[in-house]
Amino acid sequence: MLKYHDFIHAFREIGLTGKNRVIIHASMNTLGEIAGGIDTILGALLANCETLITPTFTSRPMIVPQTGPPNNALSYGEYDKQNQLAEFFHPDMPVDPEMGPFAEAFYKHPDAHRTTHPLLSLAGINADDALAMQSLETPFAPIRWLADSDGDVLLLGDTHVSNISLHYAEKLAGQKQFIRWALTPRGAVVCPSYPGCSLGFPAIETHLSGVARHAQLNTSIIELIPLRDLIHITVGRLRAAPETMLCNRPGCPYCDAVRSTLS
Ligand SMILES: [Zn+2]
């Protein structure tokens, strides 16, 4: 069973000094049993970092119109049932199940603030300047703030499939973005720069060997990657080989839509 001091030791091993600004992706399934649960991880993070951010995405407010732009990874007209269930975003809205229990616990921390993007909200502790950068049009602007502030990505037993900073790199590299819509008290709003599929993101791992730092945490690996390096390397890879991070799942609507713009 992992204990508080195991996290402290591993965080110091990868170079967290207490001043770091990090975006965290944690897989509780991979980390296994922890004495004190998620509070133990959060306590160790707060002891070793200045600024913490994690994604708290939710699709509950999403609605799909009857028609819309083509090549948008959507079958318009097939979402009547989902549209009827759509709810206005509120700060206590649960994260999507695939975001995992860490994200669900994180935004409930007494010191956490959550942005109000109806689909792509982020939660942060001591992160108000970064979170303030997000708008409907710029959902990943807090990633840019973190990169400009010498921030890092911290993977806690998680993989690059969860690494939303790679979506920001895709946008910088000019890769196709998607459009979604959300129900709000002002009516339906357009949410541009919606990200595609991340199943192919682990392909970037081999290109990060010079910049990523790893530590073993029981049977899990934790990894710290400087955001500026991650973005620079990923944009370079995507410009040289735009299909590099697309998945191989047959019929993946997102990756097929991106491929169609490359040929
Ligand atoms: Zn895909």
Oligomer: single chain
Radius of gyration: 18 Å
Biggest sheet, spatial arrangement of strands: 4-5-2-1-6-10-9
SS strand fraction:
15-25%
Q: Identify the overall geometry.
A: globular
| SS field, number of helical segments | 10
Distance between the termini: 50 Å
List each distinct ligand once: zinc ion
Secondary structure: helix percent? 25-40%
Q: Structural class given helices, strands, pairing?
A: alpha+beta
Give the uncertain stretches in residue-range form.
none
Overall mean pLDDT score?
96
Q: Helix and strand string, N-terminal first?
A: HEHHEEHHEEHHEHEEEEHH
Number of strands: 10
Reported for the largest beta sheet, the result is: 7 strands, mixed
Total domain units: 1
Q: Would you give an account of this structure?
A:
This protein is α+β, with helices and mostly antiparallel strands. The protein has one domain (4-262). Helices cover 31% and strands 21% of the residues. It contains 10 helices and 10 strands. The strands form 2 sheets. Strands 4-5-2-1-6-10-9 form a 7-stranded mixed sheet. A hairpin with a 2-residue loop joins β7 (178-184) and β8. α1 packs parallel to α3 and α8 crosses α9 (227-240). The chain starts with a helix and ends with a helix. The structure holds zinc ion. Zinc ion (ZN) binds next to α10.
